[in-house]
TrEMBL record, chain A:
Signal peptide positions (record): none
Protein name: Uncharacterized protein
GO cellular component: endoplasmic reticulum membrane
Native organism taxonomy: Eukaryota, Fungi, Dikarya, Ascomycota, Pezizomycotina
Membrane topology, as annotated: Multi-pass membrane protein
Pathway: Glycolipid biosynthesis; glycosylphosphatidylinositol-anchor biosynthesis
UniProtKB/TrEMBL annotation, chain B:
GO biological process: GPI anchor biosynthetic process
GO cellular component, one term: endoplasmic reticulum membrane
Keywords of this entry: Endoplasmic reticulum, GPI-anchor biosynthesis, Membrane, Transmembrane, Transmembrane helix
Listed name of the protein: Glycosylphosphatidylinositol anchor biosynthesis protein 11
Lineage, broadest ranks: Eukaryota, Fungi, Dikarya, Ascomycota, Pezizomycotina
Source organism per UniProt: Clathrospora elynae
Signal peptide: none
Entry-linked Pfam families: PIG-F
Length: 1055, 248
């Protein structure tokens, strides 16, 4: 590159006559405006500077316009979400020790916490241990679950057919089962069903308040927030019990300052890479408290082990690490059984289960089926039926709800039942040793039901609800009370007492199911307003992207100004109107009014420009294809089947595009275009199919889907052979990218440095990361774990720095990827006698495209390092496909068509699935946050998770400007307008999908599959839309600005 | 789709936009009658075999392959003008110009049956693998159901490609235009496009959770192809005849 580092404006090269690119008197050595001997340079230079100012201003307004669209999207999504995910009114009533909800049975005097507030207490002290993600089948011996005779149990188990051999999670934690079976009076073990969402924080709320958690709380899992409704921990605190907490620090977010600070030890809960710190800490601090000399320092200990959960997240349940972890738990509880005092109740439970890969958050059977075990040396537990002495073989048999723990623990410890509780006392704990104390069972159920009744009464009053909604529950309540009063003084184990117990239990059951329905309560006006904003902003965007005709850059200022004025006016108007409105309605009205005025202001421009509006009906096969793809996909989200199989549908559509591109390429007149188009169409299509082999199945796709993303369907680690994938990508992808540059001779200067050297180096480092990670996981070098961990994190940090630091620096300061060759022809002389020179500009054909596409490769590196090996392969294929798509668009001359941006939208969505994601909460790869960092750090952790989850959509959004810029003439007019059009079309695709999923989620809000399918898809659509908006503005459009400014240094602005 | 051959073929060709006229069916009574009976026969065969197809796709698809081929050969032999081997059939309406002998068996064999069987052969060895590959690209299973997919491809090939080979021969440039959707619409071309579109739409019901037996692979695809063939042939021969597909 001896003559390439410094560039000369093209106007200089081509000389005054402005002819083609081949003649000039002399080559100028400096790129800076040369106040040299020739005065003619000054004018073009000045013009260029003016052009630059114009360009920057026009570009800035386009950025502002898209920011305006982003604001509309956020407002619409916020309003809808706040109406859709809002559920339950939290009552701040608390139960009091002295005020039982109903007159006491047997003339028991309520009010003395020492004897038991509403009912005589059974235990003074308790140790409550949560083993996070302790799934019920972990605790049941394999033989008990899958007896050859017990085929029905095996068939109903989630793993389709009875496994031939025990998995790693079987038989590793038998102590709970053994004690429950061998000492039924001392212990019992039951399936413990969680109410979704199965995130730890929501579970802790349910386990302490006895009520159903709301869905929106999922989002606050990272932040944590104090529980302000009545709960068991607060009741214990009020009764001056000394509480100790050990383990997961989520407790401290929920219950700040409740615990004895000198005995309490909390640990970071989200470092899923770390299996042992929390567990060892809990064990280390727990056992000393059991010693006799420390017994007086505490009343209740809450312990929270996280190792099982982390082993699940990191490795999946079927992994030796899980066996080791469960064995460790087994040892801990064997020891605890020995050391625990006689008057202490020991409770061990899982807060949720885990799915086949070890993740949780949703509501599949494996995620909600946890285990509950209670133990005490008092021997007070019983079974109502001798057959129940053996713990249930699977979680479908005799399950109890997690909310049932709250009244059970409250009554056993002599506390009042928390006000909002909906659970019922667990039978085994109150029925007495012989399993016949129905009087006690009826009494505790009557107390619980009465508390529920009191709560329901208050709730209905606070909400202004009509009694008719719970008419059946009220009649059950009345009949239960009648049964109670008619029993009188009969013997306690009589059949009548049993009927009373069952009558109260029926009331509780009915109320619970009413509440489940009631609390899926939606704020319909807010949802409608949200949909209105999203729909109207979609119309504006569609008009702007596809119907407006002519140069967008020159009219965008009007759109933006009117939109911004509308937004501001609407906000002021809204605030003015809401002065007289109740508190809750204010934010709703202000948001709706500002967004709608913004939309109206923006849309008024179309009225002024109506002579520039074209027909909205597509006028070519490509236009129709884009519309059909987008609308068919959006319509399909109304059906759960099409939502579940979205990945296959995307493959079908994209392959259709590949075939259409092939057909279209065959229609091209120029044979070069035809050949190139045919080649890239076939390549694009075949790569799709290759990428489609990377799959992570969602539960609903079973049994028609086989996961390949990880080593097995039961794991979240990669197989050793998968380590080859990132290495192969490092070897091949830079070469492939290079070939797209060499076709137009743009493989020059910084492209050789970046693509040939740095990108490849970065990709090799990320391949090395996964090799070291496998060494760490597989324990290949015992004793070296720490060094391996530090090294791999360091590698990942280097890669991220290379891409987003060094890469951006290269990108920003790079010259256009050109090379000027001067052939001095000594035989021919011009008038002055100097030899004639022929100048060839290599890379002229793709100045803009090659320069801009560097940005895609920069982000490719950042995204690839944050993916698992299989995902790195999918992302590499994606990048390859993106470049093929550029060639297809160019050879078929589809730069103005909507098909390019829409196909990029489909492609991004497709590779979202190919990078091991699904439209479910449990498929979020939380552990990717720890690829470059050792612990949670804001704002980096959320950004890493976004790059991991939406890397494919991000890369596709970045690729949109290159559709326009690829092989475009350097001085083409109206490039900025074409850019805005393409970006708007791309956003339009996601906005349509988002509107559709939003509407379907709202419309199908009573659908059985709402929380499993429609709601997660709606959340995905909303998050992706905002991410794509932000990336389009901050990365794509801003990157196009850098690239076009540097090209203009040489060629000037096309206008 | 016939990619490599076509690229080589048109590297030297100079023929640009197609000037071909739509294929006219033969002008005799048998042809006029049978061209309408044929799709009814094909659909009847399919409807008759449908329960068996749902019960056992592989053996039924295999068993109906020969009857379908016979029907298609009969159709082209009775109703369609064979390619003369020369690529210039488009200049005139070849059906009319064809010197028609007094119906000697030998001449009929040479002029009709032999090209028909050649078409079948080409369909079997060229079109079937290509269409099967296309099915796989669209997401057909790779590790299982091999015979299902192959036989599905074979049925689509016999429906769509066999008549095309019979009337257009194997000229590279003509086939480029066929693949590029540049030919004017006629019965045969309409049959091809209808079959492919029908098969494409046939994928729609597969993911639905209706738990019906007929949702299994590849029943819906084959159904779509058969119905699409009949509809495409009908529309191509009547309403859309002579129309061309515009991309831009």
């Amino acid at each position: 590159m001896e003559n390439g580092d410094v560039f000369t404006p093209l106007s200089d090269i081509t000389g005054q006559n402005g002819a083609a690119k081949v003649q000039k008197q002399e080559r100028q050595e400096s790129q800076a405006p040369a106040p040299g001997p020739r005065a003619t340079i000054q004018d073009p230079d000045k013009a260029k500077r003016i052009g630059q100012v114009h360009f920057k201003a026009a570009h800035g307004i386009i950025i502002a316009f898209f920011t305006f669209i982003l604001v509309l999207h956020i407002l619409g999504i916020y309003l809808f979400t706040s109406g859709f995910l809002l559920t339950r009114l939290v009552l701040d009533h608390t139960s009091e020790c002295a005020i039982p909800p109903i007159d006491s049975a047997k003339a028991y005097t309520a009010g003395d916490a020492e004897k038991g507030c509403w009912h005589p207490k059974t235990f003074d002290k308790a140790i409550v241990i949560i083993v996070d993600a302790l799934r019920y089948d972990f605790t049941i011996p394999f033989e008990a679950q899958f007896e050859p005779t017990n085929l029905s149990a095996a068939a109903s188990s989630p793993s389709q057919a009875p496994p031939a051999a025990p998995r790693h999670f079987h038989n590793a934690f038998p102590v709970l089962y053994e004690t429950a079976k061998n000492e039924p009076n001392n212990a019992f073990l039951l399936p413990f069903i969680a109410d979704p969402p199965t995130a730890t924080m929501q579970r802790l709320k349910g386990l302490t308040t006895g009520t159903l958690p709301t869905f929106i709380d999922v989002g606050s899992n990272f932040a944590g927030q104090a529980i302000d409704e009545d709960n068991l921990v607060a009741q214990l605190k009020n009764a001056s019990k000394r509480l100790v907490h050990l383990g997961d620090d989520t407790w401290h977010a929920l219950f700040p300052d409740y615990f004895e600070s000198n005995l309490t030890h909390a640990y970071d809960s989200f470092n899923v890479w770390d299996l042992h710190t929390v567990d060892n800490g809990v064990t280390e601090h727990l056992f000393p408290l059991l010693k006799a000399e420390n017994a007086s320092k505490w009343d209740v200990i809450f312990g929270h082990y996280l190792g099982v959960d982390h082993a699940g997240h990191r490795y999946g349940p079927d992994h030796p690490a899980m066996t080791a972890k469960l064995n460790q738990m087994d040892d801990v509880f064997r020891r605890m059984i020995q050391e625990v005092g006689d008057d202490t109740l020991l409770v061990v439970m899982g807060d949720h289960g885990m799915d086949a890969k070890g993740d949780h958050g949703g509501e599949s059977d494996d995620e909600i089926q946890a285990a509950l075990w209670m133990y005490s040396k008092k021997g007070i537990f019983g079974r109502t039926n001798p057959a129940y002495a053996t713990p249930p073989a699977n979680a479908k048999i005799r399950p109890v709800g997690q909310i049932d723990l709250v009244p059970t623990l409250s009554l056993l410890l002599g506390m009042p039942i928390p006000f909002n509780n909906l659970g019922k006392p667990i039978e085994e704990a109150f029925v007495g040793k012989k399993g016949a104390d129905y009087e006690n069972l009826a009494t505790v159920n009557r107390l619980t039901a009465a508390q529920i009744h009191r709560y329901q009464h208050e709730y209905a009053r606070a909400r202004g609800l009509d009694e008719s909604t719970r008419a059946t529950a009220l009649s059950l309540w009345a009949s239960a009370n009648n049964a109670w009063s008619s029993v009188g003084k009969s013997k306690s184990n009589s059949e009548q007492m049993r009927n009373v117990y069952e009558a109260y239990a029926a009331y509780q059951q009915d109320t619970l199911s009413i509440c489940r329905d009631l609390w899926a309560r939606f704020d319909i006006p807010r949802m409608l307003s949200g949909v209105t904003i999203l729909a109207s902003s979609l119309v504006v965007l569609a008009l702007y992207a596809r119907v407006l005709h002519g140069d967008r850059a020159e009219v965008t200022p009007v759109f933006f100004t009117r939109g911004a004025i509308g937004l501001a006016f609407g906000a002021i108007f809204g605030v003015g109107v809401t002065v007289f409105m109740p508190e809750e309605a204010r934010s709703h009205v202000v948001i709706l009014s500002s967004a709608l005025y913004g939309v109206v202001g923006c849309a008024s421009t179309f009225y002024s420009l109506k002579y520039r509006l074209m027909s909205p009906i597509p006028n070519s096969i490509w236009g129709w294809t884009s519309v059909i793809f987008t609308l068919a996909l959006s319509a399909g989200f109304a059906a759960n089947s099409f939502t579940i199989w979205e990945d296959e549908i995307l493959l079908h559509f994209l392959t259709t595009f590949g075939v259409l591109a092939l057909i279209s390429s065959f229609r091209q007149k120029r044979i070069a275009d035809r050949t190139l188009g045919v080649y890239h169409s076939i390549l694009f299509t075949v790569l799709l199919r290759i990428a489609s082999f990377s799959r992570l199945c969602r539960e609903e796709q079973m049994p028609y889907c086989k996961s390949t993303y990880y080593a097995s369907a039961l794991s979240t680690t990669s197989a050793p052979w998968q380590l080859v994938i990132p290495a192969a990508a490092a070897l091949l992808i830079p070469t492939f990218i290079k070939s797209y540059y060499e076709g137009t001779r743009n493989y020059q200067h910084n492209a050789t440095l970046w693509i040939g050297l740095v990108l490849r180096f970065g990709l090799f480092l990320s391949a090395a990361y996964w090799t070291i990670d496998a060494a760490d996981d597989g324990n290949w070098f015992p004793g070296w774990e720490n060094i391996l961990r530090i090294t791999k994190r360091f590698l990942a940090q280097i890669v991220l720095f290379i891409s987003l630091g060094f890469g951006y620096a290269i990108y920003n300061w790079s010259k256009p990827l050109l090379n000027v060759i001067i052939d001095r022809d000594e035989t021919r002389k011009d008038q002055t006698g100097a030899p004639k020179e022929a100048i060839t500009v290599l890379g002229f054909a793709n100045v803009h495209g090659s320069r801009y596409a560097l940005l895609i490769t920069i982000w490719y590196l950042a995204v690839a390092v944050l993916q698992k090996p299989m995902g790195a392969g999918a992302i590499s294929i994606l990048v390859w496909q993106i470049f093929s798509l550029f060639e297809i668009i160019d050879t078929n001359n589809l730069r103005h068509s909507s098909i390019g941006p829409v196909v990029l939208g489909l492609l991004g969505s497709f590779h979202f699935f190919k990078t091991g994601h699904q439209a479910t909460l449990s498929s979020i790869q939380w552990e990717s946050a720890f690829i470059p960092l050792a612990k949670i750090r804001y704002p980096w952790t959320p950004m890493i998770l976004i790059l991991n989850s939406f890397g494919a959509q991000i890369l596709c959004a970045i690729a949109v400007p290159a559709l326009v810029l690829w092989k475009v003439k350097p001085q083409k007019k109206g490039l900025l307008s074409m850019l805005a059009k393409a970006v708007a079309t791309h956003i339009l695709f996601y906005a349509t999908v988002n509107l559709a999923t939003t509407m379907w989620a709202g419309h199908l809000r009573r659908h059985l599959m709402l929380y499993r399918i429609f709601s997660p898809r709606f959340m995905l659509g909303a998050v992706v839309l905002v991410v794509v908006d932000v990336v389009s503005i901050a990365v794509a459009l801003w990157g196009a600005r850098m690239s076009m400014l540097s090209s203009a240094e040489v060629f000037g602005f096309g206008g | 789709m016939a990619s490599t051959t076509v690229i080589n073929a048109n590297a030297t060709s100079k023929l640009q936009p197609s000037t071909a006229a739509p294929i006219e069916p033969l002008k005799n009574d048998a042809a006029r009658l049978y061209t309408h009976i044929h799709p009814i026969l094909v659909l009847s065969l399919y409807a008759f075999k449908f329960p068996a197809l749902v019960a056992d796709p592989v053996s039924t698809l295999l068993g109906t392959l020969a009857p379908l081929a016979v029907l298609q050969i009969a159709f082209v032999a009775v109703c369609m003008p064979p390619t003369g081997g020369a690529p210039t059939i488009k200049k005139q309406k070849p059906g009319e110009k064809k010197p028609k002998g007094p119906g000697q068996l030998e001449q009929r064999l040479n002029s009709k049956i032999v090209p028909a069987f050649l078409s079948l052969l080409l369909t079997a060895i060229a079109a079937t693998p290509l269409l099967t590959t296309t099915l796989v690209l669209f997401g057909a299973p790779v590790s299982t159901h091999h015979l299902h997919t192959l036989l599905c491809g074979a049925h689509i090939a016999i429906l769509s490609t066999l008549p095309l080979v019979y009337v257009h021969g194997v000229n590279g440039e003509t086939w480029r235009q066929i693949v590029a959707l540049l030919l004017p619409m006629d019965e045969v071309y309409g049959g091809l496009i209808g079959t492919v579109l029908g098969a494409w739409l046939g994928a729609v019901p597969i993911p639905l959770d209706w738990d019906r037996e007929w949702q299994k692979w590849p029943v819906t695809i084959v159904t779509g192809a058969y119905i699409g063939y009949a509809v495409g042939k009908l529309l191509g021969g009547t309403l859309l005849k002579g129309k061309k597909i515009m991309f831009d």
